[in-house]
Amino acid sequence: MKNFWFLFSTIILLTACSSDSNDTIITPAPTTEQEEKIVLKEITVIDENTIKLEWSITGKNTYQSFQFSRKTSENGVPESLNQENGNIFTKVDTNVPYTPYVDYQVVGYSSTGQTIKSNVVSYKRPDIKLLNIRPTDALFDSDNGTMFVFGHAGNIIRYDVASSSITNEVSTGATLGYSYLGTFGGQKELYVPRNDGWVYIYDPNDLSLKDQINFGSNVTSVVLADNKLYGTTGDISNVSLKCIDRATKQIVSTNGSYQFGRIKKIPNTNSSFFFITTNVSPTNLTRFNYNSDGTFVNKFDDTYHGDHPLNHRIFESLPNGNGFLTAMEGAIYNSNLVFIGQLPSGNSGLSSFDFDANNIIAGTDKKTIEFYNLTSYAKVNSIITKRYPFKVFNYGNKVISLSSTNIFNINWSYADPPENVIVEIFNK
To answer: Which residues are CB-contacts of 8 (< 8 A; sequence separation ≥ 6)?
Structure first.
C-alpha cells in the first residue's frame, strides 16, 4: 500500500510539472527604436577650392533644414554656411579656405523641434604653411634669402627661404610705418619707423634691438642714404621731412611739403627721393634733392594733382634711376615726375614690383606674376601662382612671393592687409 501511494504521488507531481511547463509565457525582448542621428561621411575633394559633403540620417525624424559649420582650426570659431532644405543630403562648398585644416559639421532642424548634430569631419593639408601675420609690408635681403614681414599688429617676423621657416619674431607694441634695410659702418641694419616718433634699429640677423633714434612725431617712412636717416613725419608741412645723422643722431636738416608720406630713394643719385603723400586727396607727388651731407638742395611737385594713378602702398623706384612705378594700373613716371604711360597689364591689377637685370617683376590679383621688359615695358613672361601675390621679390633665378591666401583689395585705398599669407617660390 505504501508503494502504491508513493507511485501515485510521483505521477501527480510529474503531471503538475508538465502542466506548468506548457503554461509558461515567453516575454519577447523590447523593440529598440533607431537613435536619431546625422552621419556625415568622409569629404570628397573636387579641387583645392571645392569640397563635397554627403550625409545620411537614422531614426524617424524628418528635417526642415540642415545648417553647416566650418572651422579653419581645431579651436577656431565656427563659420556658418548657407542652409539646405531638409530633403537634400549633399552640400558643395565652393569657397574652401586655403588653410592647413578645415572641419565641417551638419546640424539638422527637425519638424518636431529637435536639433541634431552630426559628427565632425576634417580636411587636413599639412603642406600649407601659414605665417600667421597680417602684413602691411615686407622687405627682402637677396644676399642671404631672408624676408622681413611687418604686421598690422606691430609684429615683425624674419623668414628664412632656405629652411622655409620663421627664425625670429618681435612684437614692437607700435603701429609701424614703411621700413628700410640699409648698411651702416659695414653692417646691415633694419630701420623700423613707429607711430610714437621713434625709429628702432634692429640687427637683421636675429631682430635684436641695436639702437633707436627719435624723430619727434609719428614716422611713416624712412630711408638711409649716405649715412643719413631720412624720415617722413607728422610734423607741420615745411618740416615734416627730417634728415638725421645716423652716427650722431642729430638733425642735419628739415624740409617737407605735406605731413605724412612715403619716400623712395632714387638710384644713381646721392640723396634724391620720390615722395607720395599718404593722407591727402588728391594724392600729391614731390621730388626732393639733397647733397650727400644731408643739406637740402631743392624740391618740385608734379603738375597733375590726381590726374594719373598714384598709390604709396604700391610704389617702387626703377633701378636705373629714371623714374618709378606705382598703383594697380602699373603707372610709369619719369625722374621729373612726368607720367609716361602704364604697363600693359590688361585686366589684371598689379600688387607689387621688383626687378632683375632685364625685367620688371609684378604680382597680380589674377594669381600670376608678370614680367615686363625694363626698357620697352613689353610683357615677356608670366608665372601662374597658387595664391594672390602681395609682395614679390627677385632672388637669383627664382621669384619669391609673399602671397595672400584670399583675394585682397589693391585699388586706390588698399586699406585692408591680407588675413593669411604663405610664401611661394618659383623658377623664372
So the answer is: none
H/E/C letters for each residue in the chain?
Answer: CHHHHHHHHHHHHHHHHHHHHHCCCCCCCCCCCCCCEEEECCCEEEECCEEEEEEEEECCCCEEEEEEEEECCCCCCCEEEEEEECCCCEEEECCCCCCCEEEEEEEEEECCCCEEEEEEEEEECCCCCCCCCCEEEEEEECCCCEEEEEECCCEEEEEECCCCEEEEEEECCCCECECEEEEECCEEEEEEEECCCEEEEEECCCCEEEEEEECCCCEEEEEEECCEEEEEECCCHHHCEEEEECCCCCEEEEECCCCCCEEEECCCCCEEEEEECCCCCCCCEEEEEECCCCCEEEEEECCCCCCCCCCCCCEEECCCCCEEEECCCCEEEECCCCEEEECCCCCCCEEEEEECCCEEEEEECCCEEEEEECCCCCEEEEEECCCEEEEEEEECCEEEEEEECCCCCCCCCCCCCCCCEEEEEEEC
**pLDDT for the residue 163:** 96
Which grid coordinates are listed for 260? 605724412
According to the model, what pLDDT value does residue 29 have? 53
State the pLDDT at residue 14: 41
341, 377 Cβ separation under 8 angstroms: yes
Within its chain, how far is the Cα of 46 from the centroid?
A: 24
Q: What are the angstrom distances between the C-alpha of 201 and each of 174, 184, 188, 204, 246? A: 14, 11, 10, 9, 10
Nine cell digits for residue 228:
643719413
Instruction: Please tell me the distance from the alpha carbon of residue 379 to that of residue 112, in angstroms, as a whole number.
Output: 64
pTM here is 0.87
Rounded CA gap, 275 and 19, in Å? 112
Length of the chain as a residue count: 428
Mean pLDDT per 10-residue segment, the chain (428 residues): 42 42 52 79 94 94 95 89 93 95 96 93 94 96 97 97 97 98 97 98 98 97 98 94 98 94 96 94 95 96 92 96 97 98 96 97 97 98 97 98 92 74 98
C-alpha cell at 191: 630701420
